[in-house]
Design goal:
Layout lengths: L7 E5 L4 H14 L6 E5 L4 H6 L4 H6 L2 E4 L30 E4 H10 L5 H7 L5 H18 L4
Parallel strand pairs: 1-2
Antiparallel strand pairs: 1-3, 3-4
InterPro entries: DCC1-like (IPR007263)
Pfam families: DCC1-like
Protein name: DUF393 domain-containing protein
Length: 150
């Protein structure tokens, strides 16, 4: 029996023109190959983020995605069956949503698109990852500060 790929809900900042451009670029590159990926604009959704166990400030400053996104997403994270693990740990019971953030989120998302798989592999390398993470956080902080949102 063939199983369908886990659904992924990408949380993005709809108030950020760059984030919208990045989303549109991803969709263009995916050309329908990223089955099961949906997008959720976090703008003004702090309460929903909290129900999912996601810090709204972290959601604003780091890409987050929810793997296994389905009808249970409307329920608090305690209903997800994560066994008390932190959402960002990526640990969950089978068929339960789990939250990934920052580079882990980018890597999973990019692995769904064949043309982006080599870049996802490169991002995961132990020598590249910390440098890329530092650059990512600095650039996001700079953008949010420039926009007056930090």
């Amino acid at each position: 029996m063939k199983t369908s790929p886990a659904k992924i809900c990408v949380l993005y900042d709809g108030a950020c023109p760059r984030c919208i451009k990045d989303r549109d670029s991803y969709l263009r590159l995916a050309r329908g190959q990223a089955e099961g990926v949906s997008w959720f604009d976090i703008t003004g959704e702090d309460e929903q983020l909290k129900r999912w166990g996601i810090d709204p400030h972290k959601a604003l400053t780091e890409l987050h995605l929810i793997i296994g996104a389905d009808e249970s997403m409307g329920k608090p994270k305690e209903s997800w069956g994560t066994g008390g693990t932190e959402p960002d740990s990526g640990l969950a019971l089978p068929d339960q949503p789990r939250v990934l953030s920052e580079l882990d989120a980018y890597i999973v998302l990019m692995q769904k698109v064949p043309v982006l798989k080599p870049l996802a592999w490169l991002m995961g390398l132990s020598l590249i990852r910390p440098v890329l993470s530092s650059w990512y956080h600095k650039s996001v902080h700079k953008r949010l500060k420039r926009e007056g949102r930090l």
